[in-house]
Amino acid sequence: MSDNAFSKNILCIGAGYVGGPTMAMIAAKCPHYKVTVADINAEKIRAWQTENLPIYEPGLLEVVKKAYGKNLFFTTDIEEGIKRADIIFVSVNTPTKMYGGGAGKTADLQHWERTARDIFRIAESDKIIVEKSTLPVRTAEAMERILSANGKGLNFDVVSNPEFLAEGTAIPDLENPDRVLVGSKETERGRKAREAIVEIYANWISKDRIITCDIWSAELSKLVANAFLAQRISSINSISALCEKTEADIKKVAHAIGMDSRIGPKFLNASVGFGGSCFKKDILNLVYICEYYGLHEVARYWESVVKINEYQEGRFVQKMIHAMFNTIAHKRIALFGFAFKANTGDTRESPAIYVTRKLAEEHARVIITDPKALHNAEYDLKDILQKYVEFEADPYKAAEGAHAIAIMTEWDSYKALDYKKIYERMEKPAFLFDGRNILDHQKIYEIGFNVYPIGKPALTHF
Ligand code: NAD
Ligand code: UDX
Question: What does the pLDDT look like over 329-378, one tens digit per residue?
């Protein structure tokens, strides 16, 4: 079908965890729009063109299949995509900068700026540019400055439309979001551009859940949403440490406080720590912005959310070493799960990376199992693979001859394993460290394990 057969021509630059699913959903819901997703990574684009998608996300393949080849296309031809599009979503990665000024804190905007310059160089007509990537507040200003220097007499309207999907639930999050946020300049052109983006989502989301605001509030809201979510986890994790000292039970505390409708029950699962590509990066970015504006107390407040997370990860490893008689050298330790959460193969900032490295430093032998993340785990651990790490797809085999199991990811399949069978094939005394509190600890203890949950007293046989 020619481009003229479609009422909008949308391009997304960046075919990752956000760009791929978001655009697949828009294409599936809006057969009257043409949606093209472009990336510099040819291997990734090839994978999007097959049934073997580059990311694991429940329900994603079905959505892609609905639209692929009809109004959804994947390409490496960014130039052609920019020329044809009316609306360009930019969904490139914005990791923490690891060099120069702001290293370890601020966002690395090199990919972002490169796309701005590509658009500036290639565009032959007016465009609406949509910030989908998470960006420091006031980035749109820099984008507009680059674009307005085009000298071709073209108009570029920059709109902020941050993405709130969580991995593992991306498809329901996109299909039925709590809200969609679209920010723009409060000028006539700005409001018109904003309306064009609202119109896309209004194809399947009711208007009362599509919020519009100024562009700086939209940019900042994304960082703040992630900071608040991560803060809840650090809050409950800090209390889990206190529970372990006082024989209180973190699950009961979380239940009791979560029933207060002002607090609410979600995001109160104590764990080995939060991972994922967003929380730490976005909080550090917020911290950097606060420091930039001289708000040092505010910066320290948010920084403590990351510090508690590091404390929780460290505490988990220390507990393992201490429980196993202060030496784990040459002991086999099976890690159940490597993904940063269940239902994804993503391992970015996964607490399992930290735990594996610390165990390897103590010369333990770590056997890693995960239903979806072994490929990424191999990449994350390539420098210590030969000496300290093994991979095993079958959790029963991973635990064979092990001194301990540590549950790192809350995969449902780990709840249903036959722990009696596992126990029989392990070294004794056998230890189980439940970094996600997903098992029935009393039952596991009665099988014979020494059990160490998060935020509950340990159940030991000695
Ligand atoms: P990702 O690394 O999975 O994907 C980014 C893609 O951009 C990569 O495939 C990369 O090759 C491509 N890219 C980089 N530079 C490019 C260029 N110049 N031209 C074309 N392609 C280019 O990242 P992601 O997880 O999808 O995150 C993207 C953005 O969305 C980030 O800002 C992130 O903070 C934000 N975000 C992520 C999530 C999430 O759950 N992953 C949720 C909300 C928001
Ligand atoms: C997060 C935000 O939820 C999402 O809105 C944003 O767009 C991107 O960042 P994501 O990182 O994909 O999404 O997953 P999320 O469900 O938020 O989990 C993040 C980490 O926190 C995971 O490691 C998870 O296991 C952990 N977590 C979550 C807990 O430890 N306890 C909880 O109660 C909830």
Answer: 999 999 999 999 999 999 999 999 999 999 999 999 999 999 999 999 99
Which of the listed residues 18, 118, 343 should we mutate to test ligand 1's pocket, taking the one with most ligand atoms within 8 A of CB? 18
Cβ(112)–Cβ(160) below 8 Å? no
| CATH number for domain 3-205, candidates 3.30.70.120, 3.40.30.10, 3.40.50.720, 3.20.20.80 | 3.40.50.720
Comparing CA positions, the residue from 333, 315, 217 lying closest to residue 270 is 315
Cross-sheet strand order for the sheet of 332-336: 389-391, 365-369, 332-336, 404-407, 431-434, 450-452
Nearest of 143, 159, 267 to residue 210 by alpha carbon: 159
Alpha-carbon Rg for the chain in angstroms: 24
Residue nearest to atom 20 of ligand 1 (CA): 39
For a ligand 1 pocket test, name from 55, 92, 285 the mutation site with the most ligand atoms within 8 angstroms of its C-beta: 92
Q: For ligand 1, is residue 133 a contact (CB within 6 Å)?
A: yes
Predicted confidence (pLDDT) per residue in 11-45, tens digit = 999 999 999 999 999 999 999 999 999 999 999 99
290 is catalytic: no
Are 215 and 159 within 8 A, CB to CB? yes
CB 178 within 8 A of CB 164: yes
Catalytic member of 12, 30, 243, 278: 278
CB 386 within 8 A of CB 412: no
Distance from Cα 92 to the centre of ligand 1, integer Å: 4
| Topology adopted by domain 214-462 | Rossmann fold (3.40.50)
H or E stretch including 21? helix 19-29
The answer to whether 55 touches 345, Cβ cutoff 8 Å, is yes
The distance of Cα 289 from the centroid of its chain, to the nearest Å, equals 21
pTM passes above 0.85: yes
Query: Tokens 């799960």 identify what position?
Result: 337
The ranges of the chain with pLDDT < 50 are none
List the chain domain ranges: 3-205, 214-462
